[in-house]
Design brief:
Radius of gyration: 23 Å
Mean pLDDT: 89
Shape: elongated
Number of strands: 5
Largest sheet: 5 strands, mixed
Number of helices: 2
Strand order of the largest sheet: 1-2-3-4-5
Helix content: 25-40%
Structural class: alpha+beta
Order of helices and strands: HHEEEEE
Low-confidence stretches: none
Strand content: 15-25%
């Protein structure tokens, strides 16, 4: 009677294939989670962007502090602080999540447009482009 089952060689091939798939999938998953965290951080910053745009609309100049837009910093599981600096630049400081260090920042830089609106540029010197949403690039 012939034995039924897998040979040692067949099992070794399966283990090798699983190892290769894991080696490819793990970095992709880490980038995916980092992108999710940075997207959440940018979503939390939307209120600050609205405050800066409203301040510009009313005063004709960009704010230089959070108090100018009547807001305070925020601390969540994803971000540790939000600041507004000179020329209305919003700096979001990440928490140590999803591949980000506690000192990594994402900056949102406003530019006044010809029609009186605000255009936003998003950048992060600390994060790779794979860790950021498609509308935000590294610097």
């Amino acid at each position: 009677q012939a034995q039924k089952g897998f040979t040692l060689m067949e099992l070794m091939i399966v283990v090798a294939i699983v190892g290769i798939l894991a080696a490819v999938a793990l970095p992709a998953y880490q980038n995916y989670t980092a992108r999710a965290y940075s997207t959440e951080a940018l979503a939390l910053a939307e209120g600050y962007k609205t405050g800066v745009a409203e301040y510009y609309s009313v005063n004709g100049a960009l704010p230089s502090a959070l108090t100018d837009i009547n807001m305070v910093t925020m601390d969540t599981d994803v971000i540790s602080a939000v600041a507004v600096g000179a020329n209305g630049v919003i700096t979001v400081t990440m928490d140590a999540v999803g591949g980000f260090a506690a000192t990594d920042t994402i900056t949102l830089t406003p530019t006044a447009t010809a029609n009186g609106g605000i255009a936003w540029a998003c950048a992060s010197a600390a994060a790779d482009d794979e860790q950021l949403p498609s509308n935000c690039t590294g610097a």
